[in-house]
Amino acid sequence: MDSDYRSEFEAAYKNNDWWWELIKRYRECLRSINIYVTEPDLSRKISKYLFNSKRRKKDLKGEQELKLPILPNNDNFTTIDNWAKNFESVSAEWISDKKNLRVELINLFCESWKELQHTEGIIPSWKKELPRHIRFAINKLSVLGLAEIWEEIVEILCSREPSVIRQPLHTVEELARQGYTTAVRKIIAYHKYSEQPMSEYMRSVTLHAMRFLPNINAQDWELLVESATVVNSVVEKLKATETWLYLDDVAKRFAQPQHLNAVEKALQSDPPPITRLKKNYILILGLHDRKDILEQQTGSNDYMLRDAFDIALEGNISELFEEYEPSVIRQNYYSAKISNNTDEEVSS
User: Domain limits at 201?
Assistant: First the structure.
C-alpha cells in the first residue's frame, strides 16, 4: 500500500461494511494484475501493516513503496481495467520482476515434477526434496496465477499419491477461484468411483471448491445433489450441503422438486443424520421455502437444530454468508493496534 491507501483504509477501519467494500474493490484491482488473494487474507495483510510503520519499514528492507493509482470508487470492469493499465504504466519494473519470478517458479515446479516421475537412480535425500520444491512453487503460484501449471496439478491430484501436494483443499479451491472449471471437473471425475485411500478426501475437497467456480452447469448440480443426499460418506454430504447453501441464488435456479424431495428423504432417514448434517438439510429446505416440511420437524431439544429451524422458517439463510468474518476478529486478533510488542507502533 501507499500512504493514500492507508489513509482510506484507516478511515474505514471501524465501519465494517465500508471496510469490506474497500477490501472487495482492492481485491478486484489485484486480480486485474493477476494477483490472487481472498478477501479475508487481504484484510489480514492490510491490518498487519496499517498502524505499524516500524514493521513496514523493516519488511521493505530499504526499498520504496509502490506508487498506486487512486483506488476506484466502484468495481465495474472498465474502472478496474483502467486501474490495471495505470498501475502497469507507473510500475513497469515491478511488473517485469513479477513476470520473471513467475517464470522461475514455473520452471521449478515443472522440473521438479518431471524428476519426481523418474526417480530411478536419484539419491533418497533429493527425492524427498522434490515434493518440497513442488509445494513451494504451487504455494507462490496460487497467488501469482496457476495458468501454466494447472494441467500438471490435475495430473498430480489424479495420481496415486495426491499427497505430493500437501494442501489439496487450498490448491483445488484456488483452481476454482481462478476459473479453471475443467481442472476441478477432471479431479471430480477421476475420484468419483475410485477406492484409493485419499479419494474420499479428494471428493470432499472438490465438493467444497465447487462453490467458487465461475459457472455451475446442470451436470455439476446433479453431482452436488447426489453427494448431498445419497452417498455413504458423511464428510462428502457435509461438504456438498455446505456448498449448496453457499451457492444460494444459483441453487434456487437449479433446484427441482425431486432434489428437495431427496433432501427431505435424507433428513428423515433411519438412522437419522448427524446433527451438523441435519442442520444443513433444514437450512436447505428453508432456502427453498419448504416450510411445510420444516413445520413437521420442529420440536427438537438440540440448540443447534432449534436455531436452524428458526433461521429456516424466517427465510434468512443468505445472511449466514453475508460477512467474510466478524469485525471483532480484525480489530482484536490480527491488528497491530493491540500488539503487546513494544517494538510495534500502536495507533493513537
Answer: 93-215
